[in-house]
Amino acid sequence: MPEKRKRPPTFQHHPANRAKKLKQTWVQNAKLKQKWRTEKRRIGKETEPEIEEDDMKQAVEVRRNAAPSPTPPPTKKTYLPPKTPVQQQERSSLRDRARDAYSRSSLHTYKSDPSGKRQRGGNTGRGQPDMKKRMSVLLETIKRDFS
């Protein structure tokens, strides 16, 4: 099944003239990357010697017997908020935790986007509510009311 061709982004969140320039540079980069990929593929085919069946079987056996290569550590750097000790959370009452979860001091400015995609508009600087705190308070109230 042939893959759909990736269309260039429209950059609608930018002014029209800026969006046009960004789109043009994106297209130029895409063309350059495609040329590089085809050149790399062409070079790879030229330098790859033909392998006989016996050699192929031996290579497969060697790969099976070899120790699995260790996976490299992830290169993506994400900001993790400082963790609070569990004992401190247990000591504070539910009312205090609720007050803390909904206060302005619990707003965070780091991106809580696990996939790494950034949304339009950039950073507004106001911060986002810490949903982990809010959900834990909600869970505690449900546990208290229904148990």
UniProtKB/TrEMBL annotation:
Record protein name field: rRNA-processing protein FYV7
Q: Where is the composition biased (Basic residues)?
A: 32-43
Q: Compositional bias (Basic and acidic residues) at which positions?
A: 92-102
Q: Region entry Disordered: which residue ranges?
A: 1-147
Can you name the source organism? Answer: Mycena indigotica
Superkingdom as given in the UniProt entry = Eukaryota
